[in-house]
Amino acid sequence: MNITKQVIDDVNIVLAVEIEKADYAEDVEKQLKSLRKRLNMPGFRKGMVPMGLVKKMYGQSVVADEVNRLINDSMYKYIQENQLNVLGEPMINGEQQPVDFDKEEKFTVKFDIALAPEFKLKTDKSVKVTNYTIKVDDAMVNTEVARLQNQFGKEVVADDVEENDIVKGDICELNADGTLKEDGLRADNTTVYPRFMKDEDEKKKFVGAKKLTSVDFNPAKAWENASEFASVLQRKKDEVEGVTADFRFTITEIKRHQDAALDEELYKAAFGEDCTTETLFKDRIRESIAASLRNETEYKLNRDIQSALKKQVGKLTFPEERLKAWLLKRDEKRDAAKLDEEFPRMLEDLTWQLIEEKIVRDQKIEVTEDDIKQEAKYVIMGQIMQYGLSQLPDEMIDNWVAQALKDDKQRPQLRDQAVSRKIFAYLREALTLTKKEVTMEEFGKIMQEDNK
Q1: Residue 125: how many CB atoms within 10 A of its CB?
Q2: Please, is 330 exposed, middle or buried when counting C-beta atoms within 10 Å of its C-beta (0-12, 13-18, 19+)?
Q3: Closest CA to 259 of 380, 156, 105
Q4: What is the percentage of the chain residues whose pLDDT exceeds 90?
């Protein structure tokens, strides 16, 4: 067996694999003998079918399987030994003729190979990137204080209705003359939220009303959506559509949200038992806001690092036609016209992928099991923060991490993220990062410019 390489250009080659019968005959014979032992055929005991008949029935398919295995193993070994950076998968050459295994004992199979373009990359102090930090001002802190007071507030009983109150009571349909309709629609112990009423006149009928008094109003005017009216009546939407009568709401309870007081109870509820003063409370808030903003500025920094390195590398020459052919073959449902439209963006992503791979090779970056585990924890903690949860037991978090690591779909993603995290950690040390503090408004304008 022999493999030869034909160079088409810098990113396209053809590998020709020459095969002789001697290369595969022994393995074919082993496979046929193994098949014979397992074969059940009418008229013969198991394992006693004549070898001539076995070869006649299965010989060609066994030869084809063994030849394909030999070709694939040999080709990938050649690619590995010659350190070819292949894009996609090798594809049979378009001029390749079918092989007749019955008549040909020596043949050549050619494969089109798409190679990644070679490029030089500098990752040193000559590469300069701005590293933004967002100033946490008093207004941000005060806004977060108000949010936490609201979050840790409680419901209290009120005597008269304000717009943002929760009003509970009984509702019943009225006749045109304002009397109760005996067979009309009604619901007991239901809830109304005046603030969600779209009609201001109907909303005003509730505001100021006292407990154990009644309010006559028109639900069809109060709410634009019949679903809201149906919810109050505890019925299906189609049961209230077209109902335009007035209703009487008898108030049995008024509940009002009361913000938490700015005291030690709030400080501890928000940040733990060791947070006992207003100064500590606001310091923790400032730290929390800074950490949140750091996520945004780090995203910006990573994106700017990518841009700087991609600009340095420039526009790479890719084996576009072969890549497109491979993508269409891999996914037969993919639309060729849509692929043409998406392809420039795909090449942008591929350029960065090649840059990452080069950094990993050059800097010998490795990812351990602990790195993947830590990445899973980052992801889970981020999800927890999104839901506003805090101080969850370590045991619960560790259990979620373990589940993520066992997920065959999630684990490769976590590994890729861990690699990326290490790459950017290296780049932040290797490049020149110029710090610049900006306000939230200034940072917003910078991001807007980036997204244009």
Answers
A1: 10
A2: exposed
A3: 156
A4: 73
pLDDT tens string 316-372: 999 999 999 999 988 888 999 999 999 999 999 999 999 999 999 999 999 999 999
Q: What's CA 36's distance to the chain center, in Å?
A: 51
- From residue 243, alpha-carbon distances to 196, 226, 253, 435 in Å are 19, 9, 26, 64
Say whether pLDDT at 100 is over 90.
Answer: no
End-to-end Cα distance, the chain: 56
* Dist CA 252 CA 230 (whole Å): 20
* pLDDT given at position 389: 64
Burial class (CB in 10 A: 0-12, 13-18, 19+), 253: middle
Question: Which tokens in the block code for residue 82?
Answer: 């010659």
Q: What is the pTM of this model?
A: 0.72
For position 28, what pLDDT does the model report?
87
Please identify which residue in the block is written with the tokens 């207003």. 278
Which residues, in sequence order, are CB contacts of 284 under 8 Å at separation 6+? 270, 271, 275
Phi, psi of 17 (to 5 degrees): -105, 115
**Residue for token pair 């028109």:** 218
